[in-house]
Structure formats: structure tokens, C-alpha cells
Design brief:
By secondary structure, the protein is α/β, with parallel strands linked by helices. It has six helices and 18 strands. 21% of the residues lie in helices and 28% in strands. The chain has a seven-stranded mixed beta sheet with strand order 8-5-4-3-2-1-18. Helix 5 packs across helix 6.
């Protein structure tokens, strides 16, 4: 299985563009899959530099309804009209970031919802042999504190986003299972609990942001929580790849306790599993 990062927050070694966003290209024996599209069309230009032909993609998956993962969907649909795009049925809701009483829209462009390629999902869905989607993660163990600033607009006002629009992709090939998430807003530990409920085991690899990045800095409590998550993940047999919303400081805090079980994926990096 070949997995190529098409866009991420940090510059890699292959002179690729980078931005606050995330996108992966996945190549299996049967399928060519696009997971998220970053904030704009930079992932398309990087794909050309990385010799990835996005016209050959046969399916795309949107992890959740935020602009930095969905901003390039329209650009992708212009170059590839045949790929089915799987999006959670709640991904088109109006999502906002709250800061000091001000609300900034962070949802997706509503025009995306009318694309003929869109297939709306909810709950668990077997797409094909070795391709599975799931959501409905409701655990709140060590829930990322940054979530407290994220809202969904309802008729009665701005409410805490519960991230029911988040979904996770599981790929199985050659006896290995890989779990791909976008930001793991629901908390990576809770997502893994749900994964174990479904599959009865742990994934061989996880590729996901951990939503730990904070612009205002980290309190002692934040650092303690990050370390606790790292210690719990260390006990798993799973290999973790992360980046984007994890943040570089939290990454190095976790890296200190997880060692080689945790790797950072930069824009343009490639993973072979």
C-alpha cells in the first residue's frame, strides 16, 4: 500500500507546497483513493510534482466538514468527474471557530453539496473489500481541549460541535489494516476504542492529526494530557503517523515517550505499508 501526503502544514524534502490543510493519496492493488483535499488546489500541484495522477482516482473520502480538509473538492471534481466522493451527511452543516465572542466560518463551500459525485454516508459503510468507513464515536476520554472553541450553528444559536460529522477510513490489504483519520477531533483514544469494538483488534498503522495544536501556548495541564495520550498509545502495537493539527510541540512531547512508534508526515512524504 502506497500512501502519499499531498499537502500538510510543514515543508518536506521534496520541494512541495504546504499550507494549513491535509490531503493523502492512497494506492492499493485495486483502488486509487483521495483522502481529504486540503484548503485549496495546492494538493493538485503537489500531485503533479509527486507523479500522482489524480485523474486515475476512483474514490475520495472527506474526513469531516472543515475547510482545511474540503477546500479542494471543487478543484478535484473539475479534473476528475468519475470518482465517487464519500462525505458524511452532517459534513455540510455550518461550522465555526469561536474566539473571544467572535465567530469565523470554517465549514465547507455549500456548492460542494450539489456535486453529482457526492455520496452521503452515516454510521458504518462497507465500500468494497478491504475498504470500510465508520463514525459515531461518542467517547470523551482525553477529548482535545481545542474542541471547546469549535461550534455548529443551530436555530437557537452556536452550539458545541460534537463532531458527529467526522468519519474514519479503514483499509485492509495483505493482512494489514490501516486507519486514516483527518484531525481525530473525537480524540484518538476514543476513535481506537470504537475501532476495537468493530474489528476486535488494533490497527497495524494509524495516519491522523491529533488536534493538539494551540496558538496560545500550552499549560502544564495540556502538556500532562499530551504525555498521557502518548503513554497510552505507546502500549499499542500500532505504528502512528501524524502531522497537521497535532502541532510540532505536542509531536515532540509524544515522541519523547513513544520513540519510533510515532512518525511525522510532512508535505510530500510517502509511506509504504
Amino acid at each position: 500500500m502506497r500512501i502519499v501526503n499531498l499537502i500538510e502544514n510543514t515543508k518536506g524534502d521534496r520541494d512541495c507546497l504546504f499550507e494549513h490543510g491535509l490531503s493523502f493519496y492512497v494506492e492499493t492493488k485495486k483502488h486509487r483513493i483521495l483522502v481529504d483535499t486540503g484548503a485549496g488546489d495546492s494538493f493538485i500541484r503537489n500531485a503533479d510534482r509527486l507523479f500522482v495522477d489524480l485523474k486515475q482516482v476512483d474514490m475520495a473520502v472527506l474526513s469531516h466538514g472543515h475547510y482545511d480538509h474540503a477546500g479542494g473538492i471543487s478543484a478535484f471534481a473539475q479534473i476528475n468527474q468519475k470518482a465517487v466522493i464519500y462525505m458524511h451527511s452532517l459534513a455540510g452543516e455550518p461550522y465555526f471557530h469561536e474566539k473571544e465572542g467572535k465567530y469565523r466560518y470554517i465549514g465547507i463551500d455549500s456548492e460542494i453539496l450539489s456535486l453529482p459525485q457526492i455520496v452521503f454516508t452515516r454510521g458504518e459503510k462497507q465500500i468494497d473489500d478491504g475498504i470500510f468507513l465508520f463514525g459515531d464515536v461518542r467517547g470523551r476520554k482525553l477529548w482535545p481541549s481545542g474542541n471547546r472553541e469549535l461550534r455548529v450553528k443551530k436555530e437557537d444559536g452556536y452550539c458545541q460541535d460534537e463532531f458527529l460529522h467526522e468519519q474514519y477510513l479503514v483499509l485492509e490489504e495483505d493482512g494489514k489494516r490501516v486507519l486514516l483519520s483527518g484531525c481525530a477531533h473525537n480524540g484518538i483514544l476514543n476513535i481506537l476504542d470504537r475501532y476495537r469494538e468493530i474489528f476486535g483488534s488494533e490497527p497495524d498503522a494509524v495516519i491522523s492529526g491529533f488536534h493538539m495544536q494551540k496558538k496560545a501556548g500550552y499549560t502544564e495541564e495540556d502538556i500532562a494530557v499530551i504525555r498521557e495520550i502518548g503513554e497510552k498509545l505507546k502500549k499499542s502495537r500500532t505504528l502512528f503517523y501524524t502531522g497537521h493539527c497535532t502541532g510540532e510541540i505536542p509531536f515532540w512531547i509524544m515522541k519523547e515517550c513513544m520513540g519510533e512508534k510515532l512518525l511525522y508526515v510532512h508535505s510530500g512524504d510517502e509511506i509504504l505499508l
